Amino acid sequence: MPKLLVIADDLTGANDAGAQFAKSGTSSFVSTNRQPNFAELYERFEVVVVDSESRHLPADEARSHIFSLVSRARRAGIKYFYKKTDSTMRGNIGSELEALLQASGESMLCFVPALPQHGRTTRNGIQLLGGKPLHESAFAHDPRNPIRESRVANILAQQSQMPTRLISLDHLGELHLSAQHNGFVVFDAEVEGDLRKVGEAIKRIGRLHVLAGTAGFVECLPDLIEFRKTRRPDLRYRLPMLVVNGSLNEVSLQQLAHAERSGFPWQRIAPEILLASDGAESSLADTLVNVTGDILSQGNDVLLRSVRHRDELSSFAATPAASGLSHLEIHERVARNTGRLVRRLLARSHVELLLVFGGDTLVGIASELRWPGFLPHGELLPGITVSEVAGSNGLVVISKSGGFGAESVLTQIQGILKQRAKC
Questions:
Q1: DSSP code of 175?
Q2: Nearest in space to 70 (alpha carbons), one of 55, 88, 44, 48
Q3: 147-170, pLDDT tens digit by residue?
Q4: Phi/psi at 404 (nearest 5 deg)?
Q5: Residue-range domains of the chain with CATH
Q6: Which has the least CB within 10 A, 39, 66, 89, 217?
């Protein structure tokens, strides 16, 4: 029986969490099943990570799902729970943490929202990105989860009535005074070492069973909770690589622009392919699959993308195929057609290495190809995770959240993989 259940609200975040355990030799499985059978399926894993796909759900629906998932896990015998949250505070964070705490049977939940490795820090209870409050960053304009608030307690209060207490780094030594607090305890952290100090303080007061935070704090857990260690066989990297971008984050778009300037081959996915109900089976899609497949068959990496700049989004949504679709339906159809397109390409070209930008895109692909989950192997770069698709005969998937990575990340990944493919 797994010892720890980690719940993430999107698939790239789930893979990110699983990768942190893989780095320490702790066996983990990332499930794409929102209601996994803990008792029957995962006897050989210490950690199960579940993608709840709840970031964009109504708050009450997200709360109900997390409560049900944690309740089932408790009945199956799991003792430790971790709610992996987005470091830019997107999603149903208040309702999901409340559901976790209520279902766990505990009275206090420790929440560490910082991810210093990527410039996301918490100072005096305010979430910062590169030193700037979140509501002043690019995430204020996120197309699905615009951020209007930077104070963590206020974000939690939007969806929960649980009392929240802030613990600054200067007062970690007094954490024992909060050991009987009912509700949430939020911790400041500004550098990676702060995460470990916070973790050790939480362990001293015996409050490790119900936690929440980013993948940065997940990385501390193998040093705080005793897990069996196993060694997973090394992955084999077989080039070429198919890259699929579905992220509209400005960081991702800049990364793709850099790759284009560097000569990285790319193909545009026309709006009609992504937005028509049968777009991925159309003659336009046939041409794209054939051209892209030819590039791959020649041993060259290739990138699939839709827009190059955010100012193209209005014309993209104005495509006749999008007529009558809501904003949510557009997102869902794009993800589904992207998945169908990738399924066709994998069947044609037999590619064994796939790089995906964006959680919604990865879900669309996993759903269309009916992947049961992922076996995490670690990170190529911070925030760039690498996994094997469970039951796939060696298909390797590299995934990245939209806002992660340097501008040159795609060419960096390409260089790393070429070196590893030679080994």
A1: G
A2: 48
A3: 899 999 999 999 999 999 999 999
A4: -95, 155
A5: 4-224 (3.40.50.10840), 242-422 (3.40.980.20)
A6: 39
